[in-house]
Amino acid sequence: MSSITLKSLSKKYTNDKHTLDQINLDIKDKEFLVLLGPSGCGKSTLLRMIAGIEDITQGQVYVGDVCINDMEPKDRGVAMVFQNYALYPHMTVFENMAYGLKIKKVKKNEREQRIKTAADILQITPLLKRFPSELSGGQKQRVAIGRAIVKEPKVFLMDEPLSNLDAKLRNEMRIEIKKLHERLNSTFIYVTHDQVEAVTLGDRIAIMAEGAFRQIGTPMDILECPVDMFVANFISSPPINYLDARLIERNGQTYLDIEGVLLETNLPIQVMQDHPEIVAGIRPEHCFLADDNSNALEMEILFTEIIGTDVLLHLKYKTRDFLVKKSFTETYAKGQKLNVGMKPNHVIVFDKTTQKNVRRLP
Fold first, then answer.
1. Contacts of 36 (CB under 8 A, 6+ apart)
2. What global pTM score does this model have?
3. Domains of the chain
4. What is the pLDDT of residues 199-240, one digit of tens each?
């Protein structure tokens, strides 16, 4: 079993507040879990505590049914891939991949077989005699992953492994890591601050802020029903739009009134009394351009941003910026006026005071 259980895990540095405070999490066997959050939220610290290279202040880490708190890193059955590759410059690729196995006194024949297998999986066999200085960034990252694979760990820990690569290579390596997980059938814990990486790779995503979890769930659950405005904004790429709104009732039906645009909702009328001040969250991809302004907001184009086959319209509504994402089928001019409508089933309603999603509140 390569499940991971974290029980009341905390980390506190001298005279500081807790970097991590009472972390509890069950990671299933063979699951791909992504730790997502802004810089400084504690996600890399959490990964290093599981790996055994960061001391635990309080709590326990279990691999399967075994508490590994007091085990040396090499005995924990985990392998870590770092952001900076951490390759030995004076060793060839083969020697880098073999080093950890030598430390564990794995026999030469078995070392060579493991390295051959890992090199074949990662398509780096032609690179085995090269030194790190002779490799590209993508090749170095493959070697770093290969060094982890040969250890045949129960759990792979990856700390922002793609952040040093260019955009095209990041996209390619994301696909390779996803394939690798499926091929190795192991448990992966992956740290990133990139929302696209998290949604692409994760079976589940654990969103962190200030040393604690804000929300844990599948990518679809978090995208469709974020627990609060922080999560909604952090998981949205491009950023979500926010507009002040109110709930009104007409003939027993609740409507969302966004600056005069009325959207039918399935929220109970009681929500209207419980949350008098609300904010509507509208993702750029859930907006559309209307023919008239009968149930749309008139906005002005500031500039456009072409993203592959899509265009991101940067608009101004009164004093607020607003984003609309649509297929790139025509060009738009600065200052052009557009009528923007919103898909009612995709608008997320938050309480303005607590910033919590009203659909998730008791």
1. 43, 192, 193, 195, 198, 202, 205, 206, 207, 208, 234, 235
2. 0.88
3. 4-234 (3.40.50.300), 241-351 (2.40.50.140)
4. 999 999 999 998 999 999 999 999 999 999 999 999 988 999
